[in-house]
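Limitations
The structure tokens in this dataset are predictions for the assembled complex, not deposited experimental models. Users should treat interface geometry with appropriate caution, especially where small molecules or nucleic acid strands are included. An illustrative entry is reproduced here so readers can see what is and is not provided.
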Amino acid sequence: MGDSRDAKRVRNRLALPYLDAELPLNLDLSRRDILKIAGYGSLAAFIAACGGSPTTTTSLTAKGGAMSLGSYNTDPNSKKGTQAIVDAFTAANGGTKVKLNTVDHGTFQNQISSYLQGTPEDAFTWFSGHRMRFFADKGLATPIDDVWDAVKSNYTEGFAASIKGNDGHAYAIPTDYYPWAVFYRKDVWAQHSYTVPTTWDAFKALCAQMKKDGLTPIAFADKDGWPAQGTFDILNLRLNGYDFHTELLTGKQKWTDPRVTAVYKKWSEITQYYSQAFAGLTWEQGADQLLRKTAGMYLLGLFVSDEFKASGSQADLDQLDFFPFPDMGTQYDAEKALDAPIDVYMLTKKSPTLAANRAQANAFLEFVAKGSTQVLYWQNAPGSIPTATDADTSQYPALTKKAVQIVSNAKRITQYFDRDSRPDYSGPNGMQGFLLKFLANPGQDTTSLQGQMQSFWDSLAPE
Amino acid sequence: MLLHAFLIAMVAVWLFPLFWAVYSSLRPISDTIQRGYVSWPGTLNFDNYTTVWTQAEIPYYYLNTLVIVVPGVILTLLLASMVAFCCTQFSWKFNLIVLMLFTAGNLLPPQVIIVPLYWIYLHTPIAMLGSIDISKFSFALFSDNNLLYDQYIGIILIHVVFQTGFATFVLSNYMKTITKEITESALVDGANVLRIWWSVVLPLCRPALAAMATLLFTFMYNDFFWALILLKSSDKRPITTALNNLQGQFFVDNNLVAAGALLACIPPIIVYILLQKHFVAGLTLGSTKG
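Predicted assembly:
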């Protein structure tokens, strides 16, 4: 720092022997010069300088120092996991002090825009998909191509694609994901000798049978608005395919399209099997129905296991199993698409300390890209599966192994409605409200509802 | 008889939510997951309280609230009593207009100005003069990032700004009951304006000040909104906002939240019990003319 001109002089002088044969034994380095060289960098940098390389790269990562991290991980498990990662990083990176600011998930999400424009931390936890690209486009996230180049060999193609911004730069390090599937209890199914349905008709027949057996066939809980979007996603993916789904969610297709009508039509065939008064139930209450054996199935993310774990009964957790959503008999069944949201770490742009802490922040991103780090997190929060290829999968229980399996079988992976579409459209005023309206009367002609969906989209200011 | 039946029913209705919160807070989450909320408990214990006290570090957030509320109340009372003093004890051209202005400011819903306020906070430089460190928490003098944003002082100031209007209104009503002869005789005895305010009027206003202090304490203590918007660091949050950190992305332990909420209720209840005479006086302050 500060004496780069001196450094250049040293380099020139050192380069001399290689350029001019007449001074092969030029050792006119003063003691001060040698000290400068020693102070300037490692031996590697010294050798590179001798080679006359013109690049003046500062090193990508640094040990010691400090950095800050804004985290939305406030679930008890993930909070513990984040703390474990931070502690491990501090220990592994020469005592780098990490200032961790944990803000409850809902507030963090709601305030993300003002947070990133204010005085954010250096690094922050976020989602991949449209929500990541949105802030990348706004210039509120720092591209991390250099870090990504260093760690990308540890990731598959799918993950690599998920962290690219619209400008082609890398913006995030994916650290964990969880698939959405249909969950059930093995013991309940064994008792009634149910089998996993692979087609839509078999699925509906199973629902009818469960109803006859006195179970709520499908636990459904939509008080918070977002859970219903999971059903929309999977039906649209199965019926209309990945391309149509992503185009629809980003406004390139119309909500009045007859293909959307078909989704609602199919959906209305199973709503009669839903939980009573689902509009007033939280997802936890839906999970409790499954746990207490009053419901037969539950379409949700792997985090449903958190509720089973919180019940304190390992025996119940061991009974939890799932299957991928059944085929609908379209050409898109072959895509085996599903929602598997990916959580990431990113760098902010406006952090007042980022310029000083960039190398430490880079080191942190490299650290969370390691399989060992992600397994450490997963041990605390088992609903989140590591993304790195070198993650040690030997400790995974059957449920996690199966989750990895169905995700790797999927040809197409989506991030979930509210991560793939714009936040204002997926929120309570938008799709969450529209889906509740649909579910209040599933048999209705959805033409006018779809018209509302489209006009709401059209009314939104361009992003 | 009918009246008593009605009253008992109303008491039951009012107490039910509180009772339910206490009941839930005594049950472990695993108990309610397995049996449901409306069920006979399998176990009842204080685990939620110990968890929220140690893991959620409630004591620190009490301290945060204290750091915000105490200077906030004192500053508000000083400023409001000055304005009320000037507007009631002196006849000048604009005193009614000034009084109306302060009262009108009280009617402004704070939410409507939040966006410009946010940017003002982000662009207002505040001096960094070190800090007072108490274990994990660091109380900056007056800023730790050179800004008004994300600082205790920012929250204190916004409380002062928004409470001064109401306090001025109430205090001026009270001060109107102080006869001008008293201040005039002080003037004749050679006291200057500040001296009259401090040594004559304020002591006379003690009941009103005590009543306002209890009211302002509860107002500022109850604040959720400002701290949520104008503070970024969760470790600076006052207790009410800090409770929000008990909620996760997916999983919410409602029993734990109930325990935390009940603990957060305790200080205002203590203040109320200690100062309830003033509290009631505050509600009827200025309703009769002396």
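Some entries come with short summary sentences. For this one: The beta strands of chain B are 128-134, 137-142.
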